[in-house]
Design a protein that fits this description.
two-stranded antiparallel sheet, about 5% strand, 9 helices, single chain, about 70% helix, globular, mainly alpha
């Protein structure tokens, strides 16, 4: 199939849509903010801007652009419902984790996180869940686009979204614990950890992601069949945040973390682009 022709036709049909203009504006602001954050994290820019404030702006712009992008593909009420489910469930699971250590492990949130919610949960965690889940799902849709008509497509989509969520956490943990000091892991009896994060953290994210997707997926499904066009927005947001993790890890001499995120990007991006052009 000629993916380029379809994409061009879609662009002509939507270029004057106010929702599309808003999406592009928000995506542009997000890219400006995260390029600023990457330059600062890599040591190439010394602006004096608080890192926590800049990270918060990046999360908010990523959230806004992602939600508006989805609203161009699905009814706004469906997008709002899905975002609410993801934020509510993700936040609730993390509150339980902060209070009990289950399912992620014993963790303490630092003062650098700013305003805290119930149980000492950082204000941005529920929003981060929305950014991670919706964009990981969007990248998974691109990768699986050639197989979207298979009966098992929905199960593959959920499974791959959970895998990409874990890939995101591989970069998030060193960034949050070593570079930003947003949270600190207490020692466990598990013999292996990832920059202080116990293996239970990754198991917790995987289980939580699968549970959240089970409840939010119905709201993200199109009720009526229609032409499916590739949407690159999730890939742009997901990759941009991964590059921030890579730059931060390199500047902190966390070479294994930087290499892991870089290898993940090199492995995933070509499949997403290939799927989008199918």
């Amino acid at each position: 199939m000629n993916g380029a022709t379809k994409t061009a036709g879609q662009a002509d049909a939507t270029s004057g849509n106010p929702l599309t203009i808003t999406q592009r504006s928000l995506l542009g602001l997000f890219l400006i903010a995260i390029l600023f954050a990457i330059a600062q994290a890599s040591g190439g820019l010394r602006s004096g801007i608080n890192e926590g404030l800049l990270d918060g702006i990046v999360v908010l712009l990523a959230l806004a652009s992602t939600v508006v992008s989805l609203a161009g593909q699905l009814p706004a009420q469906n997008v709002a419902l899905a975002a609410t489910i993801v934020a509510g469930m993700g936040g609730m699971i993390h509150v339980i984790g902060a209070l009990t250590g289950i399912p992620f492990g014993p963790v303490t949130y630092g003062a650098e996180t700013g305003f805290k919610l119930v149980g000492g949960l950082p204000w941005f965690m529920p929003l981060l869940w929305v950014v991670v889940i919706l964009n990981a799902r969007g990248v998974s849709r691109l990768i699986l686009r050639p197989w979207r008509k298979l009966r098992v497509y929905g199960y593959w989509l959920i499974a791959l979204t959970a895998v990409l969520t874990l890939v995101f956490v591989l970069g998030l943990e060193p960034f949050a614990t070593r570079a930003r000091h947003y949270w600190f892991w207490q020692a466990t009896k598990l013999p292996v950890d990832w920059y202080g994060a116990p293996l239970s953290d990754f198991l917790g994210w995987a289980v939580a992601a699968l549970l959240i997707l089970a409840f939010s997926t119905p709201a993200l499904m199109k009720k009526r069949p229609s032409k499916s066009y590739p949407e690159y927005h999730p890939l742009i947001v997901w990759t941009s945040i991964e590059i921030l993790f890579i730059a931060s890890s390199f500047s902190q001499h966390l070479t294994t973390a930087a290499a892991a995120s870089a290898i993940a990007c090199v492995a995933i991006i070509p499949f997403a682009v290939r799927g989008a052009r199918w």
